[in-house]
Amino acid sequence: MTGWLSKIFKDKKGYKRFADSGTPVHRYVAERKYGRKLKNREVVHHKNRIKTDNRRNNLSVFSSQKKHHAVHRRDKKRFGRW
Question: Rounded to two decimals, what is the model's pTM?
Answer without folding.
Answer: 0.85
